[in-house]
Hints:
This protein is an alpha/beta fold and 651 residues long. It has 23 helices and 13 strands. Among the domains are: 34 residues; 86 residues, no CATH class; 147 residues, Aspartate Aminotransferase, domain 1 (Alpha-Beta Complex), CATH 3.90.1150. It has a seven-stranded mixed sheet with strand order 1-9-8-7-6-4-5, sandwiched between helices. A four-stranded antiparallel sheet has the order 10-11-13-12, with helices on both faces. Strands 2-3 form a two-stranded antiparallel sheet. A hairpin with a 5-residue loop joins strand 2 and strand 3. The chain is globular, with a radius of gyration of 27 Å.
Amino acid sequence: xxxxxTPSPNSSESHDALRAWFLGPRAENADLLERVIVEALRxxxxxxxxxxxxxxxxxxxxxxxxxxxxxxxxxxTQELMGLLAELKRGVPFFSGRYxxxxxxxxxxxxxxxxxxxxxxxxxxxxxxxxxxxxxxELEVAAQLAGMIGYDPAHSWGHLTSGGTVANFEAxxxxxxxxxxxxxxxxxxxxxxxxxxxxxxxGTTAPLESLSLQQLLNIRTTDSLELWDALxxxxxxxxxxxALANHSLSTVGxxxxxxxxxxxxxxxxxxxxxxxxxxxxxxxxxxxxxLGIGSNQIVRIPVDNHFRLDTAALxxxxxxxxxxxxxxxxxxxxxxxxxxxxxDQLDEVLAVxxxxxxxxxxxxxxxxxxxxxxxxxxxxxSADGNRRSAADIRASSGCDWPSELWVRAMTALGEADSVxxxxxxxxxxxxxxxxxxxxxxxARELVATDPPYLAPTxxxxxxxDLYLGRFIFEGSKPGAAAAAxxxxxxxxPLNETGYGHLIEQTAAGARRLYDGLYTADLAPFRxxxxxxxxxxxxxxxxxxxxxxxxxxxxxxxxxIYSLMSLEVAGATPEYIISRTRFQTPMYDGAIxxxxxxxxxxTEDDWKRAGSDGLVVLRSTVMDPFLAAPPPAPDHxxxxxTALRHACxxxxx
Length: 651
């Protein structure tokens, strides 16, 4: 390590603290976890015993000596022992030997926060059922919003059960913002009010003068300004009724298209969703569930680093504009599921800005940062300033990250919406996703008002605490909010906490990558994909005897079967996962890889269709891999296990 690589005092202290943040692969901090869990339980018991003590006891000591009571306790004890035995057949996420999916052990803070709050069982749908944890949830959302660079005065967010629901809410709101100018135009006609709206090129025009194509190309902020102006124009009751007559949410897709054809005479082609081809499979489910239809997905190719190809994005936007096809949203990825690739969000936003100026076209930009979002903590110093790539590299002691990566992460603050999963790189228990919205006013477009969840009249500040009004889920655990909140308290969202944790995780992934790159497995050869943007390494193994794509796939599938809990039966020494690169999803990234394998052309690979190319995958969630103790060396151990699997697979 050079002088420039010497950790700062904060980095050194965080490095020491890292060993107190987790139970540890050998349960080294068992005494710490036991102490805080027992403290949480005793405190809860104290609260119960001192809540109206005049009520007396419901369960008496004599009750505990009756046969029925004793039988119930015996059943509980016996079945618990059976459950504990079954759980040991689970997945050892805590171990440095587990290197499959984006799962790891949780921080002690998150575990004790979840356990302590679970005893109270709050439901964060309403402050009435969660007077403490609803506030914690909003505080957590504000912390995450600040981490990605949102303005806390205008943004809003909350926790969900996971990334799928969070992404659903993002597109749900994006769709309603997209159609808002149409609803406003119809409502304004019914109310006989004159409104103006800003266009993408910066000019303004009377709302009634706009064509259908223009109405579907209004920027989010300008749409919401229109929304506010409409509500100021007439009474609440009249505006509510007028909007209901022209809103997709009330009319529904089946009748909405017919009405547009009648009102405008020249209906446009159906609107589309632009999706990075590496986007999570749940996006297709979401687009189907919202009634948009999977036929309306337009997949944007990726480059040879598995990031959305922004040149292809511009070409697609321009082509769609010529055909008058409206674009509802563009979905980018910050940490792809297969490779942890981070799309150049700054360049995507530049494409949208260019489209607004040159084509009069705009669209909602969403970043699916469910996996990679927490890595934004790396970009913040303890004093609240942004860190440069050089600063981070000096701290991590490796060549990560690049300037491009820092620009992409910084651009999260300009996306219209972002989703992040604390239960991934946040190292907290399931379920904990997060939805973040840059412009809080947009949540009103999906608001529902059940009378039993209405805030008390006159308490405007309490509106946020009635989360059920704005969210998709009807019930959600306050324990998840407490887990994230306490973990954030112990591990701040900057270089001293989560920043250091994720920095070490990424450095460990780089160390494993270098170990595979330099490993001598002759006659086998490891073919590596590009260095990861975060912490997922993809590779496959080749052998001179493998002369066809089918042979390479079968060989790597056998390696996976020998190193997988799902297939192997017994627990393998090291556990990995695998994926398949298929056409057209990976058309822009496969050429270099196929050339290095030398078994087929890109056209052959495309003709292989659903078989694609089997790729092995190692997700490094272990923060101790970057600077391992004297034993065990999980880099050398993994490479040895891989060699044994190669020998067995070939044999």
